[in-house]
Design a protein that fits this description.
Blueprint: E1 5-13, E2 23-32, E3 35-43, H1 52-58, H2 62-65, H3 71-82, E4 86-89, H4 92-105, E5 114-116, H5 117-124, H6 133-139, H7 150-167, H8 172-178, H9 193-197, E6 204-209, E7 215-221, H10 224-233, H11 237-244, E8 248-253, H12 257-271, E9 286-292, E10 298-304, E11 314-315, H13 318-332, H14 366-382, E12 387-392, E13 398-405, E14 408-416, H15 424-427, E15 431-433, H16 438-451, E16 456-458
Helix pairs in contact: 5-7, 12-16, 13-14
């Protein structure tokens, strides 16, 4: 590979991720082996305004690019200088994808083999504190002029790449990175391929962590490795940005999708990851509560859980609580007024419930009415069943369980097949306690709707 052609490239852009990003400046240096044989650099008119923060970073403003050539005017030169060469850049996926998108806009396919000097440096120059271009050049005493300008960054990357070539004289590392089956070309710059190789191809959850070890994304998958890799194949701005900030990935096998969903929900609530959108909102539950008014009548109300300890059933939508209260009124001839279903102070006049026996008009004794209220509450508590859901375990010789007590999710656990468990209490020593939330309630209800009772043991 002594005569192999390389083009070391850097672009400055309008700073809008991958999609919608436009080039404002480009520099390409062509090498044959370790020798520079050509160079092209130019400002580019992005045909859109340059944001002030980009001007502050690069120094490139709208006036500088107003009379510069548009991308389609420099496209032929880019094709000419990069033909039959390997595309090299510091954090190559960014520059490569931006250029490819520019070509796509003018109807031209652009495909090149690529090498990333971040990943090559991490492999061949291990142990450095940072592999950003500025910090790397400082560590290696490489002169870097005009930082965040295409020519300055490209010239520094050329020197870095030339050193990399001397550190890999037999091209063992470079060839492995160029291997069509290698993940090196698609992985984010800071993520070691060994981390990906060690990911299990089983059901569970995974955590993306940034440079400081902070969890920035939580996901679940039937095949953890396959799902993780799919994030890096996705060219959406969010997925690209996630990859750029990922330094390590941890995973946890759960054995089945139900526990994976429950653990994912728990981790999102615990870490509140930057790149998760769903399940981050904390929803305060409602409940049906009771109190005795000045007439001695037991009234039912819908209230927020945090305000009282007299909770009879938890609801995560107020409409669900109202629907349940209306059903209790209808089934037990309760008064809509005394169930907080209308605000009037006179007798009840609910649009749907018409079978009140007249407690609101003093036509029924308080004692008889209160008995029916208590019967209604008893029927309500009977709906809160206690049961165990059995599912697959993490290995062939264990099974998992999810514990529901009085209608509330309590946690999950794993039991080896040799353990003898026959009663609800037998499961508790094996349980990992979890918090019941709106999201876990939705997950379990959805599971039961799909699966029915085939996997459930009711105690």
């Amino acid at each position: 590979m002594q005569n192999q052609l390389y083009t070391v490239i850097d672009v400055e852009t309008t700073g809008k991720g991958i999609l919608g990003n436009r080039i404002t400046e480009i520099c390409i240096v062509k090498l044959q082996g370790n020798t520079i044989i050509d160079k092209f650099t130019s400002l580019v008119n992005p045909e859109q305004q340059i944001p002030p923060f980009i001007t502050g970073l690069t120094g490139i403003d709208d006036d500088m690019v107003r009379d510069a050539p548009k991308f389609e005017e420099v496209a032929d030169r880019i094709i000419e200088i990069t033909t039959e060469s390997i595309f090299v850049a510091h954090n190559v996926n960014f520059d490569y994808n931006v250029i490819r998108e520019e070509f796509k806009r003018i109807g031209v396919a652009f495909t090149r083999k690529k090498l990333c000097t971040v990943r090559l440096s991490r492999k061949l120059i291990p142990g450095l504190f940072s592999y950003s271009l500025g910090k790397l050049c400082s560590s290696l005493n490489i002169k870097l002029n005009d930082r965040h300008r295409a020519e300055g960054d490209t010239d520094a990357t050329v020197i870095l790449f030339q050193r990399i070539l001397t550190l890999d004289p037999e091209f063992i590392v470079i060839n492995s990175f160029l291997n069509a089956r290698s993940k090196q070309a698609t992985l984010p710059p800071h993520l070691d391929v060994e981390i990906i190789d060690k990911l299990p191809e089983k059901t569970g959850i995974y955590l993306f962590k940034d440079k400081k070890g902070v969890v920035i994304y939580v996901g679940k998958a039937k095949n953890i490795k396959q799902r993780v890799l799919s994030h890096f194949y996705d060219k959406k701005n969010k997925e690209y940005d996630l990859g750029q900030n990922t330094y390590t990935i941890e995973s946890e096998i759960t054995g089945n999708e139900l526990i994976a969903l429950l653990v994912e929900a728990e981790k999102i609530q615990k870490y509140y990851p930057k790149y998760n959108k769903a399940q981050k909102k904390v929803i305060t539950p409602y409940k049906i509560a009771q109190y005795t008014n000045r007439k001695g009548v037991t009234q039912l109300v819908i209230d927020k859980l945090k305000n009282t300890n007299y909770s009879l059933e938890i609801f995560y939508r107020k409409s669900d609580a109202i629907e349940q209260l209306e059903q209790l009124c209808f089934d037990h001839q309760l008064c809509p007024r005394y169930c907080s279903l209308q605000n009037s102070t006179g007798h009840c006049s609910h649009y749907k419930i018409k079978n009140c026996n007249g407690i609101c008009q003093n036509k029924e004794s308080v004692a008889l009415y209160n008995i029916r209220v208590q019967q209604a509450l008893i029927s309500l508590t009977k709906q809160n069943e206690t049961y165990i859901i059995k599912e697959k375990g993490r290995t062939v010789d264990e099974h998992s369980f999810i514990m529901i007590q009085n209608g509330v999710y309590k946690g999950f656990g794993y039991i080896h097949e040799r353990e003898q468990v026959s009663h609800f209490d037998d499961f508790e020593p094996f349980m990992i306690t979890q918090q019941n939330t709106y999201h876990t309630t939705k997950i379990i209800k959805s599971y039961l709707r799909k699966k029915g009772e085939c996997n459930n043991i009711y105690m």
